[in-house]
UniProtKB/TrEMBL annotation:
TM helices/strands, residue ranges: none
Main location, first listed in the record: cytoplasm
Protein name: Asparagine--tRNA ligase
Pfam families with a match to the protein in the record: tRNA-synt_2, tRNA_anti-codon
PANTHER family assigned: ASPARAGINE--TRNA LIGASE, MITOCHONDRIAL-RELATED (PTHR22594:SF34), ASPARTYL/LYSYL-TRNA SYNTHETASE (PTHR22594)
Record keywords, A-Z: Aminoacyl-tRNA synthetase, ATP-binding, Cytoplasm, Ligase, Nucleotide-binding, Protein biosynthesis
InterPro entries, sorted: Aa-tRNA-synt_II (IPR004364), aa-tRNA-synth_II (IPR006195), aa-tRNA-synth_II/BPL/LPL (IPR045864), Asn-tRNA-ligase (IPR004522), Asp/Asn-tRNA-synth_IIb (IPR002312), NA-bd_OB-fold (IPR012340), NA-bd_OB_tRNA (IPR004365)
Gene Ontology molecular function terms on file: asparagine-tRNA ligase activity; ATP binding; catalytic activity, acting on a protein; nucleic acid binding; transferase activity
Biological processes per GO annotation: asparaginyl-tRNA aminoacylation
GO cellular component, one term: cytoplasm
UniProt record similarity statement: Belongs to the class-II aminoacyl-tRNA synthetase family.
Subcellular location per the Swiss-Prot or TrEMBL entry: Cytoplasm
The gene coding this protein: asnS
Organism: Anaerosporomusa subterranea
Residue stretches making up the Aminoacyl-transfer RNA synthetases class-II family profile domain: 133-432
Length: 432
C-alpha cells in the first residue's frame, strides 16, 4: 500500500490502484445511500463515489456533513471514467474529514468581479483561477529554461533604487533611512552593468509603477523578465525575443493542455506563434493606422486602441521598431541613419493584447548619454555609476523587458490583467 498522497493531475499513473488524495470539497451530491464528492487539490478535480455499505454508517454520516471547501482525505481505488470530471473516478473506501468549512462565500453561482476581488484569497481556489496560476508558473519556468539553455546568467537587480529608469512620473517613493529612494521600475540599468560583467544575463523580479490610470493592462506591481546582452544589436535582440516567445508559447501548449481547456482558450491562435515574427517600423505602423481611418500624427505614442489596430494585421506578434526618439526613454540609442528615431522595438501581441515587450539597443557613447540625462532632467550624480559603463570598455549592447502578466493574459486569453497574478496591485486597490 502506497501511503503517499497522489496529485489529481497524476491519477493516470495510478489507475486500478488504491491511493489517497488530499484536498477540499468542491461540490457534493447525495442520494441517501450513495454520495458523490468532487474534490479539488489545486491540480485538478476528482469525483469520489462513496457508498454507505462500503464505508459504513459512521464514515458516511461524517462525509454527509462536508460543506463546500471543507478539507478532507479520500482513499480508494481510481479508474478511468470519461464521463466524470477530470476523466477519473474514485471508488472510495475511506473519507477522513479534516476540517468542516464555515459557509463559503464563493458559491457555484455567478459572482460580480468586485465581490470576487475583495475575496481574492479565496477566489484563487476556483478551477479557472488555478488554471491561470498554473499556466503562469509554467511560463515562468519556460523563461528560465530558455535562458539557462542559452548560457545566460541569472543576475538579479535590486528593488530599492536611488533613481528612475522609466520616467519620473510613475515612481513609488520610499524613505531609505532618511534618504529618498524608489521601488524599481525596471532592472535594466543594473542589468547593463551585469551584462558588462557576465556577457549575457537576465533578471526576473517584481517591478513597480505608480500608474495613474485604471486599465485592463496595467498593474502597480508586476513581474518583468529582462535580458541584457553585450555586443547584441537591435536585430539580434529581436531574434532572441521571437525565439523566446515562440518557445514559451509552445511549452504552454505542450504542458498545459488541461489548463487551456478549462480556460476555453482557442489553441489554434497559439499554434501560429512561431518565429520569425513580422517587423515593421513605427513609420509603417503609423501608415497602417492612417489607412485604417485613424487620424494619427507621426511622433505620438500609441495607445491601446492603436496597438490593437496594428497587431490585428498579423496572426503572430509583431515588432514595431524605430520609434521617435522624443517619446522613448533616455537610454535608447538613436539610429545612426536617422537620429529622429531610436534602435528600439516593442513587441505587440496579437488579439488586442498590446505591448508585451519593450526593448532596444542602448546608448554606448559617454557624451551622448550625458546629454540625454541632462535633457531628461535626471540627476546626473545618481547615474555616475551607469555612466562608468561607458567609460570603461563601453560596448554595443541591447536588451528587453517582457511583462509577465500581460504575457499570461495573452496566452490564457483573459480580458483583464487582474487574474494573472495571485494578488494584483491595482489603482486604489491593495486588499487583500
Ligand atoms: O516598455 P517598458 O517600460 O520597458 C522597460 O521597462 C525597459 N527598461 C525594459 C528593458 O529593456 N529591460 O516595460 C516593459 C514591459 C512592457 O512591454 C509591458 O509588458 C510591461 O513591461 N509593463 C507592465 N505590465 C503591467 N503593468 C504595468 N504597469 C506595466 N508597465 C510595463
Ligand atoms: Mg514600453
Amino acid at each position: 500500500l502506497d501511503l503517499e498522497t497522489v496529485l489529481i493531475k497524476n491519477l493516470g499513473r495510478h489507475s486500478g490502484q488504491q491511493i489517497t488524495v488530499e484536498g477540499w470539497l468542491y461540490n457534493r451530491r447525495s442520494s441517501g445511500k450513495i454520495m458523490f464528492l468532487i474534490v479539488r487539490d489545486g491540480t485538478g478535480l476528482l469525483q469520489g463515489v462513496v457508498a454507505k455499505k462500503e464505508v459504513g454508517e459512521e464514515v458516511f454520516a461524517k462525509a454527509d456533513q462536508l460543506t463546500q471547501e471543507s478539507s478532507l482525505r479520500l482513499t480508494g481505488i481510481v479508474h478511468e471514467e470519461p464521463r466524470s470530471v477530470g476523466g477519473y473516478e474514485m471508488h472510495v473506501t475511506n473519507v477522513e474529514v479534516i476540517h468542516i468549512a464555515q459557509e463559503y462565500p464563493i458559491t457555484h453561482k455567478e459572482h460580480g468581479v468586485d465581490f470576487l476581488a475583495e475575496r481574492r484569497h479565496l477566489w484563487i481556489r476556483t478551477p479557472r483561477q488555478t488554471a491561470i496560476l498554473r499556466v503562469r508558473s509554467e511560463i515562468e519556468h519556460a523563461f528560465r529554461d530558455f535562458f539557462y539553455q542559452r548560457d545566460f546568467v541569472l543576475a538579479d537587480a535590486p528593488i530599492i533604487t536611488p533613481a528612475a529608469c522609466e520616467g519620473t512620473t510613475t515612481l513609488f517613493e520610499l524613505d531609505y533611512h532618511g534618504e529618498k529612494a524608489f521601488l524599481s521600475q525596471s532592472g535594466q540599468l543594473y542589468s547593463e552593468a551585469n551584462a558588462m560583467a557576465l556577457g549575457r544575463i537576465y533578471c526576473f523580479g517584481p517591478t513597480f509603477r505608480a500608474e495613474k490610470s485604471k486599465t485592463r493592462r496595467h498593474l502597480m506591481e508586476f513581474w518583468m523578465i529582462e535580458a541584457e546582452m553585450a555586443f547584441f544589436d537591435l536585430e539580434q535582440n529581436m531574434r532572441l525575443q521571437e525565439d523566446m516567445v515562440s518557445y514559451v508559447v509552445q511549452r504552454v501548449l505542450e504542458r498545459c493542455q488541461n489548463e487551456l481547456k478549462v480556460l476555453e482558450r482557442d489553441i489554434s491562435k497559439l499554434e501560429n506563434i512561431k518565429a520569425p515574427f513580422p517587423r515593421i517600423s513605427y513609420t509603417e505602423a503609423v501608415e497602417i493606422l492612417n489607412k485604417a481611418g485613424e487620424d494619427f500624427p507621426w511622433g505620438e505614442d500609441f495607445g491601446a486602441p492603436h496597438e490593437t489596430i496594428i497587431s490585428s494585421q498579423f496572426d503572430r506578434p509583431v515588432f514595431v521598431h524605430r520609434y521617435p526618439t522624443a517619446i522613448k526613454a533616455f537610454y535608447m540609442k538613436p539610429d545612426p541613419n536617422d537620429p529622429k528615431v531610436v534602435l528600439g522595438a516593442d513587441l505587440l501581441a496579437p488579439e488586442g493584447y498590446g505591448e508585451v515587450i519593450g526593448g532596444g539597443q542602448r546608448i554606448d557613447d559617454l557624451a551622448l548619454l550625458e546629454q540625454r540625462i541632462a535633457e531628461h532632467k535626471l540627476p546626473v550624480e545618481a547615474f555616475e555609476w551607469y555612466l562608468d559603463l561607458r567609460r570603461y570598455g563601453s560596448a554595443p549592447h541591447s536588451g528587453f523587458g517582457l511583462g509577465l502578466e500581460r504575457t499570461v493574459a495573452w496566452i490564457c486569453g483573459l480580458d483583464h490583467i487582474r487574474e494573472t497574478i495571485p494578488f494584483p496591485r491595482m489603482l486604489h486597490k491593495m486588499y487583500p
